[in-house]
């Protein structure tokens, strides 16, 4: 936070609205964090949205963290970013911090050792999961620029599915096809209507690709890989479209962000510009 913004916060103290926002984002954040209740138990039986996070620290020995929704509510929404648009940020944060993670250690070269976790990740509906912790989960909150918010976590001794995963037929076929390359599988799943977030999870847990080449992929990398594969696939279509004969301008505002797209006549080219408002964290 810049010194100017910090001084404004000190003057306002969340009561005078000096920043122009409807509610104080700092107070809102901490109210949401304070509302998180950490289960003081060593075993949980709760629905998973489904949610599986694969870390990258220590690669190729990484942490794999399936999570359950201990805070109640519609668990399916917890891992459906496609449906978060228009949802208040407080609600998104409440859902994400309500996920309790059971952390397992895994070798990225042996995804088969986590078959139940893979089936969980591929499900399109919440699955009842039993997580047995070595000790009660820690009351931690993690906010990161490159990953969704995370709530409490604890070392898991065992993760067991109590319900049956609802795996979409196209994803089930890709999972069982040991001769299908991962890139081709991603495109097929996308064209079949499988949500991108679900494809990313399947990619991350090593459920796609030729059998001998399957590996766990850290979540951060799997998001990038799947987005890149789908983008290159769509670009083939875009290049074949007729040229525009006029400029088109689009704008959308959401959650204090402004998105602007300008389409111009001419051969295909692409430029992405990201700018931070003055007197904010990254532009003091």
TrEMBL record:
Domain called Archaeal Nre N-terminal: residue spans = 18-283
Pfam families in the record, alphabetically? Nre_N
Q: Which GO terms describe its biological process?
A: DNA repair
Q: Which domain of life is it from?
A: Archaea
Q: Tell me the InterPro entries matching this sequence.
A: Nre (IPR033167), Nre_N (IPR006978)
Q: What is this protein called?
A: Archaeal Nre N-terminal domain-containing protein
**What organism is this sequence from?**
Thermofilum pendens
